[in-house]
From TrEMBL:
<dbReference type="GO" id="GO:0003729">
    <property type="term" value="F:mRNA binding"/>
</dbReference>
<dbReference type="GO" id="GO:0071013">
    <property type="term" value="C:catalytic step 2 spliceosome"/>
</dbReference>
<dbReference type="GO" id="GO:0000398">
    <property type="term" value="P:mRNA splicing, via spliceosome"/>
</dbReference>
<dbReference type="InterPro" id="IPR032847">
    <property type="entry name" value="PRPF17"/>
</dbReference>
<protein>
    <submittedName>
        <fullName>Pre-mRNA-processing factor 17-like</fullName>
    </submittedName>
</protein>
Length: 72
């Protein structure tokens, strides 16, 4: 990404954008120091502390059936 006056800095921690960024700004590489001691698993994208959660569609009957018979 070229350093020009029109580009804005996007913080990785932001969840909402207040302007319409250009493609180059939105998908620019992340700058800054990297932790050399992080494993590949620690660098993986996560949306909660324990990992990445995806939406799932399942029936309530099947969920309860599995929950009730899990330990038996």
């Amino acid at each position: 990404l070229q350093n020009n006056e029109d580009s804005k800095v996007l913080l990785h921690s932001k969840q909402e954008l207040t302007h319409n960024p250009k493609y180059e700004e939105l998908f620019a590489p992340t700058f800054g120091p990297e932790n050399p001691f992080q494993t590949q698993q620690m660098r993986a994208t996560r949306n909660m502390l324990s990992g990445y959660v995806e939406k799932a569609h399942l029936s309530e009957f099947q969920f309860e059936n599995q929950r009730r018979t899990f330990t038996s």
